Queue: 4 jobs
Job 1
Amino acid sequence: MAYYIRALLITTFLLSLPLTYLLVWRLKYTLSLTRPKPIRHGRRNPREPTHLLIVLGSGGHTAEMIAMLERAVNSPSPQSAQSLDWRDFAHRTWVVGEDDELSATKAKEFEEMATSLTSQETLMRGKVRAYTDHGPGSYEIKKVPRARAIYQSPWTSPFSVLRCFLACWSILTHGVYPEDVSAMQHIPADTKGRDYPDIILVNGPATGTVMVLASVALRFFDYKGAATRFRMRTLYVESWARVKRLSLSGRILAHMVDRCLVQWPLLDAKKTGPGRAEFQGCFV
Amino acid sequence: MSTSRQKIAFLTTGATATFPALIEAAVSPSFLEALAAQQYTELAVQHGADGQQLYDRLASKAESAGSGVKVTGFALDKTGLGRHMRRAQSSNNAEEGVVIAHAGSGTILDAMRTGVPTIVVPNPSLLEDHQQELADELEAREYVVKGRVEDLAGALARAEKLRQRTREWPPVNSGTHKGLKGILDEEMGYLD
């Protein structure tokens, strides 16, 4: 009997080496900085609906996210081409903590403000080109269990993180249409559901980190073709409060996200920071 | 005497975390005397739901000490604190006062946008004590005064000096960077 057990252990050990190598290779491929982006035909093409997902942590995270988005849509002025037109994103998904009414309210107020701003482009379109515009688009606010409560030590969070992870996975895959549909150049207008988010924008709360991890897991396992759709570009903006050192979320995500942006020059990866951190000015 | 203008100090502990040490330091006879010495007429305190009991206890003690500074307080304002911070701005019947805030990034941004001299006090009980760095950096760049709970009166004196030097946020030359829109456009793959 001992012989078989030994043989089994040795075989398992020998198989685990190439298996580990394959898993690590797959992970590196998933997190590659050069993964392709989709080809777009025009900015607000009704046949290529765009989808932005934003995670609002509570308190300062929400305040910074809203301040950042407000500055982007209002500056230099709502009419100029350098300001962000909120309607460039046909659908916006806001993810908030399940007991965070304040963030849900702030999201709603921002949506109402931003979709009513009229850019110069839209003014010039007029009625003639209305068919190329999909209007103010739509948004929804979704709730997830918190990954970590304020004051909770990160070491005690595995259960809360797991609950949050499952909720994030289900939000990302909710209503996602199958691969063969997404592979079409023009999605038929009557298709139900939508594609994975084009961009996932997070700015530091644990819930945001878990959302990014869920999107990486989806791409790792190529669930419903997540790896081949070239979506879910992850955009991490480090908190403005982090001047000399990345936050815990930043340290975890710095090597995983497509873009990691810091708001103080000392954190730029070329100088001292880890991973892919870039300084592109302050956003708030 | 009755025609003297108001001068309001607005204190906020934020909406997310409690900061009882700041409330205790501010609603104390010694700090109220320091306020009175600088001709302040009112200290308005936003103490959060958790700070209600503490504030009530301290406010009644402060009234009996009789410094001449009116003390008012409230727990939260769901519509935001901008309105309350602006009470500290100068106007027809008010001299410019001061905003004393916990060093949360959202609160600091709101306070800097009002243009009123701001004292930021880091709350040391938060994850990795993350409020210290921002307070230090902004004080070094002369946007705010960094205060400690142990020496609020000293911070008040430094805020008076800051009054002449207040700088605007966001900084004027910040338009040279890509901005969030630039990054989003890059990630979406728009070629225009």
Note: The two ends of chain A are 67 Å apart (CA to CA).
Job 2
Amino acid sequence: LIRSINDPEHPLTLEELNVVEQVRVKVSDAESTVSVEFTPTIPHCSMATLIGLSIKVKLLRSLPERFKLDVHITPGTHVSEHAVNKQLADKERVAAALENSHLLEVVNQCLSVRS
Amino acid sequence: GVKDGRWTVLQLVEALGFCLENTDPRMRGRGIQLLSQVLLQCYSLLQEKEVLHLVLFYESRLQDHHLVIPSVLQGLRALSMCEVLSPGLAVSVLKAIFQEVHVQSLMQLDRHTVYSIITNFMSTREEELKGLGADFTFGFIQVMDGEKDPRNLLVAFQIVRDLIAKDYALGPFVEELFEVTSCYFPVDFTPPPNDPHGIQREDLILSLRAVLASTPQFAEFLLPLLIEKLDSELQSAKLDSLQTLTACCAIYGQKELQEFLPSLWSSLRREVFQTASEKIETACLAALHALSACLSRCVLSSDSEDLLDSFLSSILEDCRHHLCEPDMKLVWPSAKLLQAAAGASLRTYHRITRSVLPLLLEQYTKHTQSSQRRTILEMLLGFLELQQKWGHVEEDESTLLSLQAPVCSVVFSALTDPSVQLQLVGIKALTVLGSLQGFLSSSDVELVVDHLIRLALHEEDSQSSEAAMEAAGSLAPTYPKVFSGRMVPRLEQELQSGPPLRCVSSSEWDESYYNDCSLQQRCLQALAAVSTHTSIVRETVPVLLQHLQKVQKGTEARNTQDMVSVCQSLHRVALQCQQDMEGCWYFHQTVVPCLLAMAVQAAMQESTHMLPGKALLEEEVLAAMIPVISAATTHLSPELAAQSVSHVVPLFLDGEVSFLPQNSFPCSFQPFGNGECLEAQRRLVALLMAFVCSLPRDVAIPQQEWLLRELLALSCSCNCPFTATTAAKCFAGLVNKHPAGQQLDEILQLAVNRMDPSLAEGPRRMQALTLLLWVTKALVLRYHPLSSCLTDKLLGLLGDTELGPAAADGFSLLMAESLDVLHKGCHADVRIMFRQRFFTDNVPKLVQGFHGAGPDVKANYLKGLSHVLNHLPKPVLVTELPTLLSLLLEALSCSDRVVQLSTLSCLHPLLLEAPQIMSLHVDTLVTKFLNLTSSPAMAVRIAALRCAHALTSLPTTVLLPYKGRVIRALAKPLDDKKRLVRKEAVAARGEWFLLGSPGR
């Protein structure tokens, strides 16, 4: 699902950039949980939050409601790992971010199917 | 009057004298208008002297009042078409126009007249106009300056092109001429809606490009303009500039390009490295290709510094280092740039490969990750493919030849890599290397074959093994000896070793048994794949037939499956040797009698000894044999086919078995005979059908009438549905090709007489319906007059409670392409547009029938209709849509799954192609689609979700009210138990989320 998300800065997908990899995605259908670890391209990638947000939104839109989502950065690959993880885990902040039309626009661009 | 010659023009002028000299300009205008109209009608009748006077008159009138001018120009246009115009007049007319008329202040139509006059003169009086020298060019520049109407521009561009192409003197006005045309570049024109003139933006772009790229004289002005536009932001401007540059390179030389090369290169490089648009990238690469080609063309003729060399050096310098970083973004753009330049000429190729190939080889060994290696090998492959373009490897100059050993070792190492992706690229590279004449040494070829065998048989990933078989197939014609000497025996050996007897039934044994079976499958496939050369076919076909016989004797449960796969392999071989007369005949001669003999023998055994059914006679196996025989027959030449038909038909009619190998049979073969025990023999009609229906149309079939009667009887009387259907198909296939005439009519009458009573009642109604369907199809395809009568019968049956559903399904049979008989491939008489014709003839009847039908059979009509619509070409469907839409929507609520599915697949393209009409019904559509997403049938759910996805192409404003509802409803199929349904649901829901939100 998330492999085809576009990177906000490059004309490539997250899979092509190795931001998301199959081994770092854990799905448990029985427990209805999905856990995604993603690796920003460089340790101080300013887009890390945005990438995380895109992944989260894509999953929110594509998975049945019963799933609990957990999107976070692969440990040790980003300088402000905790801050970003905290932002992504916080439901209110995700919802608030999506109210912001500018942010939503960027996220939607990432999610549009490339022509 | 003037036309008939009763009046002369002079008399007319005299009669009009009063008008022509009237002081009121309006009256004068009317008079001249009349005269001009007359002249336009009969300019060809004028005498030289008359023309002279008229020209002088019109020229003087050019100074007249502006109201008069349009008519004057019309008159001059008429005169410009006269053949008898005396020398010098054309020049004086043009001079007068250039001097007296301010063209751009005229109306569009009158400006067009001026251009027509010029065009006419240019086509007839070229010499005279050239006498005017550069004045003519200058005059024209003034005429054209400021033109705005696209219609006129097209003409004007054509004139400029002719000016240049026919070598008129441009004199000092080159720059002016360039200015006056280039100001339109890049063309920015959108035709107004409902434009009756039909001028497209593309027309203007092309004609302007033809002007700009018509002469090297423009180069010094054009190239800076192109660079400037290339640097602009506008995509269309970039694209247009690149394409114009490409066009220019066809005529430019080194001199024109020299000054601008560095900036052109830097612009091209920037575009390729940065652009997100594929179109622009392609255009850039094409431009670079053209540039390099142009430079390499000029290089030989000049003694000055080697421009090409320095140009290529700068390309190499900028791109080379990117190749060393296979993980980075710029690898591919760089490789593409280099390949575009290298593909321009042999010279550029050598220059670039000399530098790049060693680098790539070195990088390959340096990087060890298979994904990086894959990228590098893919680039290498690109360069190798270019080498293919230059044909054989040249001894002295080629860098490739000197690198033969390292290239081979790199490719071989890729083949043994565990990564499938890398293997696939390696196989491709191998194919290319193999096709380079004289590149691989004989020991290398043997190594290649060994690698291919290993990959084809033992590689776990099916993708690689298939690719290896393909590669073997494409290399086999180049090295037939190696393949038939090395690969075929290996495969044969593997095949014969066969699955071991199952003595121990532990799970371990089962697994290895299974592996052996799949190995056998692979062997069969590989044997078929490699049979691309006649000499190899002669080796592989006996192996396959032998295997078939061996399997037939066995008793294991997998036999059916095995025989089907042998038949599939044989079919593939047959297809591969169709183009080759000799191979085709060999195949036909070997395979067809052998298959027939085996089948006949099996059938005899069954009918004499009442043995349990042999696997060979199972429907599946027979069905697999049909394409083999059919493919072996379709491409036979008429003489050979006639020879063959004289054996096969008597076999079935008289039991004449002498031509079959091993023809000692215990009893006689009589498939059309009566008798309980002959059931097995009757089934072989399938093989007869495969043969007889695939013959070219001009091959006469002996005893055709008798054969047809027997088939007819069999199809109506047989209890076994397989045999009856086959007989009906065979009958239909023959009828379709039967020449029209009394004989055909008699046969058809007989068929109808036979069908009617069985259709009405009795135990064999289904058989009769099948026969009816196939005969109808045969006749519909060839537009036979009887077809409408039969179709009406079929329409009538839709109302029948028992046969109705089957008849409705029959409509899909009528419209669909049939696989084994009655298609173009087997020489059937298929008229184009038969579907459209069937549609227009029968859909009104279907709709009418639907409205008149009882509730229990209404679904049949809908089903029939949706089958017809489903097979109709989409453009026709879209135009016919509005009348049928309400019926289709009704069909959606029909509970029949097939109807739902075919209606959905009908609606899907309509949603994409005719959103305007569909948006009128958006409410119904949304409701119906969402309901169907919870249908019990998976295919319906998928189709409904696809349609829901396609809904998003309707105008956003129409959809927004439904957004929330659809998103909520689509949450449910996200958790569907089928993966394919979930996939569609995700796609549809994602698209609905994006509707109307920013950043879409």
Note: The two ends of chain A are 17 Å apart (CA to CA).
Job 3
Amino acid sequence: MSRVLVPCHVKGSVALQVGDVRTSQGRPGVLVIDVTFPSVAPFELQEITFKNYYTAFLSIRVRQYTSAHTPAKWVTCLRDYCLMPDPHSEEGAQEYVSLFKHQSPSMTFPKWLSHPVPCEQPALLREGLPDPSRVSSEVQQMWALTEMIRASHTSARIGRFDVDGCYDLNLLSYT
Amino acid sequence: MLQEESDLSLIIAQIVQKLKGSNLYSQLERQAWASLQRPEIKLESLKEDIKEFFKISGWEKKLQNAVYSELSVFPLPSHPAAPPEHLKEPLVYMRKAQGSWEKRILKSLNSMCTELSIPLARKRPVGEQKELLNKWNEMGTDEPDLSLFRPVYAPKDFLEVLINLRNPNYENGDSLSFRTHLGLIQVPLKVKDIPELKECFVELGLNIGQLGIDDSTQVPPELFENEHVRIGQKVLSEQDSAAAQQYIRQGSPTALRAELWALILNISSQPEDVLYYEQLKTNVIQHDLLVDSLIYKDVKLTASNDDYYFVFEDYLYQVLLCFSRDTSVLSHFAFNSASPPKSYIRGKLGLEEYAVFYPPNGVIPFHGFSMYVAPLCFLYHEPSKLYQIFREMYVRFFFRLHSISSHPSGIVSLCLLFETLLQTYLPQLFYHLREIGAQPLRISFKWMVRAFSGYLATDQLLLLWDRILGYNSLEILAVLAAAVFAFRAVNLMEVTSLAAAEAVLADLSTLKVMPLLQIFLFATVT
């Protein structure tokens, strides 16, 4: 099943604040980021990836159209998902995060799909360790991938630090 | 959970890829081929029979140890979208600070180069090569003129950089408020408090036997020591790295320590390793580096002046000079916030095919660096083994003590942990020292940067390093530093200047580290 990036427009963040933004001294703790999908055919969202910057908790709300006649309504997909276990310290502050469809059952978009992507049945998740033969087949896939990557690199000469026997250096470089 | 499963697959793939290039892999392959001769290996159950053979012959254990070693050293794979810098250090402002610090070091080295008109590297003429080869075992007798060389930096320079670290997103104001940190470190890293440390260092508890406490002359050896030694011998005969790491949390018997450390670090001296060391030695003979003079100077200034370590002077050169030429060390920069300095072959500035790292291992030694090696000389006398052990200790632990990162075992976290422990559990002492202009970190920093080498008596230092290996963490250094202050609190409360405070804490050679740690963690009223 191949996945593609969905083109989207991420608007700047807006503070949720009571009162006048200009005169109020307080710093709002809640910011809202709007993400719109311009002119894209209906799709099934699998994963949202982003880099955090000091956001402690994340909620995601989606405006869903249920049918052509009823007005769209807002659905909460994720509420107060914790990105920083201790908001006053650096843990998780600048981490890369992925949110998957399975984490939110209602994270689907319009009911009909124009790309008939086969919907993956959630695997019977065993408690404890994953199924070894499944892991080993995934490992083989990754192995093949890493071999491809390795083959495309020029081979480094192991252990040698000179260039053709020469290690005559001028000065250290700052770049 | 699906996420955990794919994380596990990724970790497995990563470890497999790493081990595939190793000696162990080729040995296992050879063993598997050779085992086909054996009668118990049947074609219809080939895979299972070979696996069984590996289990019985001890090769599976070797593989387990190698995997365990990789897990201990390599950080967990990060998010696929994360660039390589993120693995080195996730916080952008720390990466920038490390970059600036490195630039200062490079400038300092470059100016030393131009001032003294000494090249960064040169090929030795044949006569000089022969001479060096002849006196390889007694380089300490050499008295080169090192007066013009100065160490690139000392720990106190590095401390100033750490004190000025700021998170641009953290508002704590310039004026003193309840949000300002009272210590010198102003970045909000997460550090453990005593309840969390007690959980983490549970084997150091009051009701658990320790070497360094329960092996003292007053305690009959039947109570703990004999049994502990017996278990240690069993662990060694099983050759199990993970078991050794668990065992050593209670300390290592002196007679078993060298083997236990080698087992935990997964070092087994194979012929290839000895050959590799000899190759490094050849590199030292052939090329002279400016960094060599820095190493000489450091050894002469520190280890040679130390009552415990001066006898090992020659070993230190044999290890550190080779270390500088070892390109295999470069791989640790994948998870080190630091980066190896770059240079170009003379006349080829800017041409990437003539770009090289300098020194070849990418590590520029600072004042006191040789003290990382010195204590190991008590344990290992064969140069290539001593070398391997030091190299592994460096890429697992010591590099974190002199690079700027947010890692829990990084020096910044250790400093903050120390200051927080002191403030929280000895607030009167902390306040008093601050008032007299003796910020505690200014005194303890040098202890932590050197992992207490050169400050404690060697037997005590080795007991401390046992626990570093056992817990795979340097946090114990910060706890010990706080425990030392707690121990000398009464005297410290009476001093009225930084100099006097330094004097109270100048001599740590009589301290017993395990009782101090135990009391601080488990017997102090919190």
Note: The longest strand of chain B covers residues 342-345.
Job 4
Amino acid sequence: MVLSRATDSDGSIHSTFASRYVQESLPRFQMPERSIPKDAAYQIISDELMLDGNPRLNLASFVTTWMEPECDKLIMQAINKNYVDMDEYPVTTELQNRCVNIIANLFNAPLSNEEEAVGVGTVGSSEAIMLAGLAFKRKWQNKRKAEGKPYDKPNIVTGANVQVCWEKFARYFEVELKEVKLRKDYYIMDPVKAVEMVDENTICVAAILGSTYNGEFEDVKLLNDLLLQKNKETGWDTPIHVDAASGGFIAPFLYPDLEWDFRLPLVKSINVSGHKYGLVYAGIGWVIWRAKQDLPEELIFHINYLGADQPTFTLNFSKGASQIIAQYYQLIRLGFEGYRNIMSNCAANAKALADGLVRTGRFDILSKEVGVPLVAFSLKDNSKHDEYEIADHLRRYGWIVPAYTMAPDAQQVTLLRVVVREDFNRSLAERLVRDIEKVLHELDALPSKLVTEVTASLVESHPELKEVKDIDIDSTKLNSCHVFNEVLNSQKAVKAWKKFVAQKANRVC
Amino acid sequence: MVLPTAAESDNPANSCMFASRYMQSPLPRFRMPEKSIPKDAAYQIINDELMLDGNPRLNLASFVTTWMEPECDKLMMSAVNKNYVDMDEYPVTTDLQNRCVNMIARLFHAEVEDGDQAVGCATVGSSEAIMLAGLAFKRKWQNKRKAQGKPYDKPNIVTGSNVQVCWEKFARYFEVELKEVKLREGYYVMDPKKAAEMVDENTICVCAILGSTYNGEFEDVKMLNDLLVQKNKETGWNTPIHVDAASGGFIAPFLYPDLEWDFRLPLVRSINVSGHKYGLVYAGVGWVVWRSKQDLPEELIFHINYLGADQPTFTLNFSKGASQIIGQYYQLIRLGFEGYKLIMENCRTNARYLTEILEKTGRFTILSKDVGVPVVAFSLKDKSLGHDEYEISDHLRKFGWVVPAYTMAPDAQHVLLLRVVVREDFSRTLAERLAHNIEEVLHEFEALHPKITKVVKEILVTEDEKNDQVEAKENSKKTHENRRRGRQARHPDSVDKTKGIC
């Protein structure tokens, strides 16, 4: 604890904004030599952070941005607890175990009444997926070793619409990623194609409940039935993992009859993000296994932590305990009815937003009604202005609404996506529709992007055009201006057009 | 946002916290409850249960920070709803991370020009940092071997057996063999000579620890570097070094600036440090920095189109809170070099003081060195007392202290020790109180007349065994064995290889 020095009581420093610290720019590359008073440090950083976006207007993210003040209080109190000190904080550890049990039962894990579920709290779905993938890889390797077959080329079958963490898993853990390509109007993994792609080296098939692109649920039941069939023929026993990062806290409440979880026999593990529709701040996910046998014992570490033995299977070690406590708070505070009410609200708001957009007559809705409450929409006609421009213009009103290209092989489709979280209420939805209409009017008045691009490249390559007087008379005269004509037909113009039209595939999150 | 229903606000019995019916029903443990409960009830119930958790500040086992200034708490709380990975949405937060990477890389003398961005990233802790660094080494080595046309399926890593468990995790999860240099009595860190001997063509890197978890000692990275430079010249393998400076990275630059352990040594290619240890931030932030761009293979970096902007990311975790990163930046500019130096000097002084008092009792051998992380590791001189370090640890709990007892890593696992970590918030007064309590515990043991007790025990145990043979077929045999086994279970001989300390 640094005690204040004598010089700190210097009068000129007392007023935060008069202090000399606010005049100097903050160090960016080298650690500063001297200390500064704590209120100055607080104020400077706080002021700079004002330029960060407002988390609640970020309609791109699924991640929770608001919790009740009571929960904030609990989080703050637990901020100095290192979650991994299980012996020191037994209650916190117990709360994690309760969450695992509750979530496993929510997913209909085949447990007897008082049996402990197999699962763990993670920092997010990325870690959860890596752990689940590791378990599948190790099980498959052990099986192949026992059969005396090669085990050096594992692969995993998913849709091309997977979130980037699956590619990370594949790249870091040296598993081949076999992607089922999408096609126009079918933006999720096709179970029939997926099953065809399964071979003896497939460690598992990953289905997504709540695709990142348009919130749709993949047909896990169909996948399960087809895979059962194939397994009977081949004897490979290929399992399924369900990436329910967003859908895991939607489906049980809104669509309880939809069979996607452990009710299907081939589903061996499920991950869900506590920080998405689990309604907790960023930094918590859950992975649940069907049963003990689905998690190879050799992956579990037994730590002698502070004298007590405990098993751990995570990639991260020390981390804050706050989010685990917050997740438990939400589970008992809201209960089943609370979650159901909130998710119904979200679905209703999403529908209202979709209806509003349809009424403008300019958009196609790409998201389905059954799915995660988000609205994915694209322009019916994007030849003059595209979705990226809409996203840009909406920023001026404060909204963050991202524009993406669809995953291969549907990357010619561009779309905008609005995620409806708990704190996105009906009035905000209506305001957004109005602002989108304003943006459309603005864009209609502007020349199309193609024209702007071509003009810009023309002027850049032929600055003498600015001098030619005929141009600013009217368009009939343009054709008589031979310089202009020549240039318009030249290579440069064609190049600019081509550049505009070529869409770079980009990944969405 | 769940609005209270009419029924909740009607019943006056619900308005008094402890009279409400929610206090009478036990909290659900296996299934989600059907109904909601009011938020203040939820808060109170969980808060009350958490009272039974230990007090983080009395946890002398952990290196992880347990106190920060209220101003920083305020900053962190206001950032709790920011998802750090939304780089386009929170550009300032992302910039703060980059500044921290720059400062830490330069603190470690990384090869980076003035004004250039250093290569590194924030992680959730040293575990993730080590996995990323290890991955980078593995991939570089594989690429090199492929180019040479040699087999690349058996990578290994050379470390001391005193490594923290996350290295074993890395080895097991990423299928790299762990070649451990065993310790020996009196030498509790990795021997650089033995390490260099163990290096072969499949070694992706040698890992040295700056601040061993067991006794806080710094490994001799300079000697390792010099030996390895020599060996590399002979073999042409170009084996690099990684320094696990999880605890030592924020100690050495301030207390021992002339100690060469970082990028000043040419073979050191990456370093990890825990922001949440002596970086003085709450749990949840670590840093990994690479010497230069070439040390991080481009193919491991993902380019995400996040909300329309391209950014490179190389982490295992994706979404996570932004608070700790902001907390780290706050500490770096609030304290500056002089602040950190003062704090570390304080810690060292308090550690020395505790060491002196323990030595004065005449009952303990000190296993930690003066140069190292401010940790006091000690073990009993006289083992014949019949009481071991585990019992001292147990008895200290009565006073509220959590002081863990461990066995040393192989091949010195017959050595038991206690370890006290001196953090920023462990003042001299607390050191005095701890020493006082330890002496009280020793007096308690003496009052039990250990030598006589031992003899009595032996007699009774023999009696027990005779009885056991008689009752061999009955169930009560199990209870006798458990009573005896209770002590033996923690005996060094029964230590499992997969167990490590942290």
Note: The domain at 73-333 of chain A is CATH 3.40.640.10 (Aspartate Aminotransferase; domain 2).
